[in-house]
Structure to design on (1204 residues):
């Protein structure tokens, strides 16, 4: 098929290359000259603007957005809109909030353009291993661009799903990331506990490696853990500072909205907030209160 | 009544003074010369050893232990034991683990000495306001030394309870402290949230003061919070480092033993552990994993 | 002063009565005939519509809203608006979301009407004991209607605070309720633990009563606990089903928005959600997974 | 090699068969006639008593214990002890508490018998896929019986680790299970959230299947989830009742002992306790308190 890949960042460039390798005609779009040069070196066509790229594709066209979630998606759609025509399919493969995707699908439908939301998992390894894709939107459109999904996925018939109507794809990806937070925190706590047990002098990389085969906790995240710990067993030089990208927050808010108690996903998010607190006011308050009622000494800064 | 108060630390000296003021004959015991001198200046008799103090009291005697929980209690009992005689009552007013108290009561019973476990709450304010007392052990003995409890409590008929058999007093005190952890953490989180909301420029001391009267959250801990925040609204100079004294841990362990889910008390304890982590391994692990799968930059130390 | 109290539910009727007793001229407004009749029996004037009530007051007028948060407030303001004139002060004493209050204040300012947001705590006991009030909005207006606040509060000079600009009052009330959730959960867990410790056969009402005097955990909520437990020690006949009113959710969302980790307040909310789950899907999933990997039997429904 | 497998339950019988298939001479030991008959049908030798089995093996002998953790292990060792001789190696492959294993190793060393603690993961799938093994104890002994570990593991050189001195094996297994609790809870919460989002009518089995390939959350537990959900998408007929086997409790206690905050593993355990509460006293207490201060109706049983 022919496809325009808008956004040639880490994810977009890899996905464009995987599609290109898979025999599709890909036109990568990015305003950045360096991004375009790097993409061109990977063998596929590039354009500086979406308008230019769309002009090169035969109609109806397929456009894949791989840009930062939020306002950038709306801006990109606004600039795309004049150049789209009836029957085109636009796929948002980024980490958009599913309610934004539902709104955008409704808006584009007024122009007879189909909008699909596609949660994309796999990170930097997706180029080689394929991406796990969760797709929301019109079934006929999903079928029409199925060749694209089959190439991006790890295999033709696995690793992708038409999850449901508009929004369902990004909803599933949001939950996927919430689960990811919980799993990561579970491993992190377990390895922290083993690291603290100095009397056993455990080699965490070797323990992780043993778990990779046959254990109940084997997983891809464990493979990555084993790799990280075998190269840097004490994680020296890494700061205990953990960003979060938004999807964890949405998952927590959605769970509360739906009256679902999700303590582990929630605490995993709070732990990340906590990792970034430099001088916790609540902890200082506890220290002040202990001093007040018990005369306990406060540690001074 | 006559009573020996063993241990003239912050709590013991205050309790001895309250008993002395209440008309009891008190002999304070402490190996430390300074502690004895300070106690003597408060008007009651002192001795360097329990043996000396016991010799001054008419039998059957009442002995109150106010020493650090754990081994010190057992050591104190071992040194007391040769000097005790049938009918004496020993009261442990410290923060002992209730199962230790049950064991000690059984041991002393073999010597016809009654052991009472008395959870004591009130901190440094107890001298003036009285102590809340939760007592475990033989009912007849509790009645016999009731005059002591009535003087230590805020009022003759309130602020103290014979909770149940041996261990029941320290058990209730343990749970009391677990609740205390949860309440403190709730206030700390709330004030931290208001402090972070800089757009409102809230005066936390004034808000706390307004809550002291008529609000659902009014409490003695809030009174202390209002006092602390009115004097130091930003808690300047206080480190976010919160010790824990053991009773929170016992409460968490007991809850799990009894299959009771107590998430708030448990998380309050974990938050204190967390406050003392300088370079969390689990947070560094999360950062390393994010880098592994997403290529996200790690913050370096 | 003169004041119209719009909404004669449990809270509004009590507040109107407290103002009436305090010497103010109160006109209660409620569309419900029964509510008006009941209010009239308490001694103050009533009207069926706000328009009618406003017409009876001399300008500039003071109007207090005590209606359910959300759309009802906007509807009430819409119906009030044509009858308001320059200089009037409208006070929302309900549990509105603080961002709604900020929006409403801006809207009314265009009509030269001042809007104050007043968080009101105290529940059904406020009539006798006074209410704790946290007020947001224009300082001059707060001063102008100060006599109202002084009467509603437990005392002239305590129990109320002008917290800050528009929104600050309801923001503080929101946090107040978050703290309330955490405190309630801490007590509930502690009493549950004591109730489960059947070997001590504790009388929870007596333990709570002893804590009311001199203990670190004494509070108004403990007073209520002691009362409830002394009358119904096993809480017989009460279902383990706990509603939540919205303010806890807002507090949790705000904390996450501000990157403040508030695990205890958050878990207190989740516990309420959990109390209402009849057939938890996540627990069934855990059971299914244990069966899958370990061959453990699943309990059937 | 030759080996006695003591305990022919679900795990022991499978492990004996895998060793038998791997060319080792296995004598299975179980007091139960049915267990022995079933084992004999799988092709390997059986005995009713350990004494009988030991007499058939050439010295020094290798004995593998696969019996329930706790007292049964001590009883088994007591009955084995008279029949062991210098140089024998006893391996505890069950879920023993690591401190018990350290104590037992010290005791057996006095009889010149080497005790190895081996955490065994893999569940009912281990027969075909091999077991992940974490071994603690003397390095020379581990090397001597290495052929056993290499056969039980998924491959000769992977899936097993000599983790450290006595206790290290069961310590790692304990942490492994703590992580397992956290991961299971993370998946369970995520699927519960998707199940509750009825507007998307998600097919959870299909979503899980898509995640199995290429996603960040792919794992063996996800494979099992996909299998369970594809066969029973609503988990009909399964009760929300989740047992726990002890290792989660030990992990939580160990974390607190070591001052490591492990909120996700801890909450995963508490959630299981919670799943088994039929009539939560703490929830009833919350309901009673809401009624006390706010006049909110209580739901009756």
């Amino acid at each position: 098929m022919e496809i325009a890949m808008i956004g040639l960042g880490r994810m977009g460039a890899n996905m464009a290359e995987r599609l290109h390798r898979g025999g599709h005609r890909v036109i990568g779009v990015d305003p950045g000259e360096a991004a375009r040069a790097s993409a061109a070196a990977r063998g596929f066509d590039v354009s500086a603007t979406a308008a230019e790229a769309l002009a090169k594709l035969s109609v109806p066209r397929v456009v894949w957005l791989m840009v930062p979630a939020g306002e950038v998606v709306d801006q990109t759609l606004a600039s795309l809109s004049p150049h789209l025509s009836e029957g085109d399919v636009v796929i948002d493969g980024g980490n958009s909030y599913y309610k934004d995707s539902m709104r955008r699908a409704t808006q584009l439908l007024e122009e007879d353009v189909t909008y699909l939301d596609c949660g994309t998992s796999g990170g930097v390894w997706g180029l080689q291993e394929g991406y796990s894709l969760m797709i929301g939107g019109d079934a006929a459109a999903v079928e029409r661009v199925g060749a694209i999904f089959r190439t991006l996925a790890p295999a033709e018939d696995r690793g992708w799903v038409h999850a449901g109507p508009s929004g369902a794809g990004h909803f599933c990806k949001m939950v996927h990331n919430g689960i990811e937070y919980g799993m990561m925190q579970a491993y992190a706590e377990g390895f922290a506990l083993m690291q603290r047990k100095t009397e056993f002098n455990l080699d965490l990389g070797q323990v992780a490696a043993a778990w990779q085969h046959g254990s109940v906790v084997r997983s891809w995240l464990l493979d990555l853990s084993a790799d990280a710990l075998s190269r840097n067993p004490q994680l020296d030089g890494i700061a205990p500072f953990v960003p979060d990208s938004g999807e964890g927050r949405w998952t927590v808010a959605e769970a509360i909205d739906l009256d679902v108690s999700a303590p582990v996903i929630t605490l995993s998010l709070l732990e990340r907030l906590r990792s970034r607190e430099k001088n916790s006011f609540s902890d200082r308050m506890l220290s002040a209160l202990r001093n007040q009622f018990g005369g306990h000494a406060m540690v001074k800064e």
